[in-house]
From TrEMBL:
This is WD40 repeat-like protein. GO terms for molecular function: U4 snRNA binding; U6 snRNA binding. CDD domains: WD40. One of its GO terms (cellular component) is U4/U6 x U5 tri-snRNP complex.
């Protein structure tokens, strides 16, 4: 008897679900997100849920309408079904927050500067392709063959706490490391001798980046050299001698990665307050507070020409921004968990992203899609880097205690850099063309990797 009653309950539930699906198919639901939100507001339902996307919000409204009877609809919607915006004229309103005059001036400066850089890059690529003395295939093969022979050259205890980030100086002669201890340290390369220790933040340092003009001829002792970001919600600008030049405050939550624009006048900071910001390094003013992610923004990167920025968030979405206009020009959808690191290829039109879903993805901005997924790690990918001179190979680092090198041509695995006893949190490739690689880890060590003796 009890079994019969249980079977009857299951059958009734199956019938109810079938009827609900039928009603959902028949429900008239707006296709415009603004109208979906308006209808949810009329129903006294949350306009959006945490991390909810437009299609998910529309499906939620469809289910709510299917579960309501006609009397309830009449009571809550005033006797009218939601507008089917496919059948009426869509009312479009461009929403924006007006920026300061300094932002307009910065955009104009960025536009002129980036156009010149793009022209130089394209002309150089054209000359290289047409020159009878240049053989790009041979160069690529030589770079990949050299990368296959990369081995550990040195290992140094770098801090008392896990090391969270590392970056080579523009000349490749120094390495900066940052740690959970709040310390920023500078090391000589390749002998890995500590030069200076700076108490950069009271708590954890989450990102470090060099100024592109650091160490250039004519730069004074107090010229900007480094930027750090921390969990104290601030970014800080430092000279090479360890003098703090400026504190950039404004974010409402901890920072993630930081990146200095290649022009050298602006800084990008990613934050857990779901925004990334663009700062003027000379004045310390925040020029832009950019929204667009539904969860924390973890990483920001600039294209080499300086025209584009990329942001990656824990909502598993990457966004490409035109710095000259402020428009979001491409959404990078494909990762299933948060994006932790991004980097542009020197060719200007490819981008790599590393994610908590254990993969890195290579995106072609011209084709507006992912070219390839690199599935080589068994844990999250904490750092991605293109070889900065020619981009013939790229580097990924992961929480599986390894870093890996991949060909950017056919995306085959070139080498696995194994040796750390803890999660590899940061890694970088020297910009001097030597192929020197640095990696830092939760095991508190700095390791240098190269194909020949240093």
């Amino acid at each position: 008897m009890q079994a019969s009653r249980h079977a009857q309950i299951l059958q009734e539930e199956a019938v109810r679900q079938m009827e609900l699906r039928r009603r959902m198919r028949a429900a008239v639901v707006p296709t415009q997100d603004a109208e979906v939100r308006r209808t949810l507001r009329l129903l006294k339902e949350p306009v959006t849920l945490f991390g909810e996307r437009e299609m998910e919000r529309r499906d939620r409204l469809r289910k709510l309408l299917a579960e309501m009877d006609d009397d309830e609809k009449l009571d809550k919607l005033g006797g009218a079904e939601p507008e089917d915006v496919d059948m009426v004229e869509i009312r479009k309103e461009k929403f924006y927050t007006e920026g300061p005059p300094q932002l307009k001036a910065a955009r104009m400066h960025l536009a002129h500067w980036s156009l010149e850089r793009a022209m130089d890059r394209i002309n150089f690529s054209k000359r290289k392709r047409e020159s009878p003395d240049e053989d790009e295939l041979s160069e690529r093969k030589a770079a990949v063959d050299a990368a296959k022979g990369v081995v550990n050259q040195s290992s140094e205890i770098g801090d008392d706490r896990p090391i969270t980030a590392c970056a080579f100086s523009p000349s490749g002669q120094q390495l900066a490391t940052a740690a959970l201890s709040g310390l920023l340290k500078l090391w000589t390369v390749p002998d890995c001798q500590k030069q200076i220790t700076i108490k950069a933040h009271a708590d954890r340092v989450t990102g470090v980046a060099w100024h592109p003009h650091a160490g250039a001829p004519g730069q004074g002792e107090d010229a900007p050299a480094l930027v750090t970001g921390g969990v104290d919600t601030t970014a800080r600008l430092w000279s090479a001698s360890g003098k703090q030049l400026r504190t950039l405050a404004g974010h409402a939550d901890r920072l993630g990665r930081v990146a200095v624009h290649p022009m050298g006048q602006h800084l990008g900071t990613a934050s857990f307050d779901q925004t990334w910001r663009l700062w003027d390094l000379e004045t310390g003013d925040c020029l832009l507070e950019q929204e667009g992610h539904s969860r924390s923004v973890y990483t920001v990167a600039f294209q080499g020409d300086g025209a584009l920025a990329a942001s990656g968030g824990l909502d598993a979405i990457g966004r490409l921004w035109d710095l000259r206009s402020g428009n979001s020009i491409m959404v990078l959808e494909g990762h299933v968990r948060g994006i932790l690191s991004m980097d542009f290829s020197p060719n200007g039109y490819q981008l790599v992203s590393g994610s908590e879903d254990h993969t890195a993805k290579v995106w072609d901005l011209r084709k507006r899609k992912a070219l390839y997924t690199l599935p080589g790690h068994t844990s999250l990918v904490s750092q991605v880097r293109y070889e900065p001179c020619d981009g013939y190979y790229l580097l990924t680092a992961g929480y599986d205690n390894t870093a890996k090198l991949w060909s950017s041509d056919n995306f085959k695995l070139i080498a696995t850099l194994a040796g750390h006893e803890g999660r590899v949190i940061g890694a970088d490739i020297s910009p001097d063309g030597s192929g020197l690689i640095a990696s830092v880890s939760a095991d508190r060590t700095i390791k240098l990797w190269a194909s020949g003796l240093l």
